Amino acid sequence: MKIGVPKEIKSQEARVGLTPAGALTLIRSGHQLSIQKGAGLLSGISDEEYLAVGCSIVPNIEMIYAQSEMIIKVKEPIEEEFKLIQAGQLLFTYFHFASSATLTKAMIDSRAICLAYETVEENGKLPLLIPMSEVAGRMATQEGAKYLEKPFGGFGILLGGVTGVQPANVMVIGGGVSGTEAARMAAGLGANVTILDTNLNRLRELESIMPANVTPVFSNSYTIEQELMRSHLIIGTVLIPGSKAPKLIRKEMLAKMMPGTVLVDVAIDQGGCFETSEPTTHDSPIVIKEGIIHYAVTNMPGAVPNTSTTALTNATLSYALQLANKGWKVACAENKALEKGLNIIEGKVVYKEVAEAFDLEYIEASSLMH
Q1: CATH, residue 26
Q2: pTM
Q3: Which of 7, 149, 224, 357 is the right S-S partner for 98, CB 3.0 to 4.6 Å?
């Protein structure tokens, strides 16, 4: 199969879809790899490293799309790429369709096959979301601690305090991968951490694995409202696969927070779990509303591409190999985890939550795989 890896062109996106190690694995399985010139530079990977494992270096993004049967990316295509996508072309990347009607319509019109990393599901887990969720969770605490500093408009509190001075209070909403990593980082810095979830079994697990300065609490609207009044940093990580994130903190709640409180919305790719969140970029990462700092960068792991690119390839490679070796129809028919990654097939929406988000017709993916 002819596989192309374009350079990411979303603002401040420094990751690349495949490492040289991943490319070598695909090449040794008989596939042709084309990498856009300079695609890996911001992740610390030179064109020479790709050439050394047998890749071709292609001068521009137009050629990558024109000559590839399968595109391996990191982020969803943006408007400049829409016209480059071909009917029948397989796109393997993050899409987060439910948060963008424009992207959904463009991919329907392209008649491409859109297989989304974030909805590949195996044994109830999202294996291609996990590595970036780990990065985003850890970064959420790191960025939150920074924006709590007074020069950024923050409350002016050190997350871990010092001798004789109380540390900051951190509320993490959601006890999944991102939430767990955010809480672990905040606890490591010495903060008082409350982590909320609606799953009692998960709360029991968190109770057993978290340090003493993390308190797992059952999540409901009353508890959230009580906790936000004393929290200096609030990290929202709640995700419903393929759907828009639920709005857990509403606009009117901002008035109950301490001025300079920081909200970090890790769920922004799926529309965000704070009503007042709006997507931001690494160029301009925060918005201040009613004295509350909102950090809602849509590609947080893109700020640490050296770590993120390797972690992502480690997770995606085995699935990419199946798609390349067997073709998407056979690979998805044989692997139900991959089948769940299918969102749009040649103009038809095959992921129920995406269809429901935009009131579109839903068709079973299996009916289009013969």
Answers
A1: 3.40.50.720
A2: 0.87
A3: 357
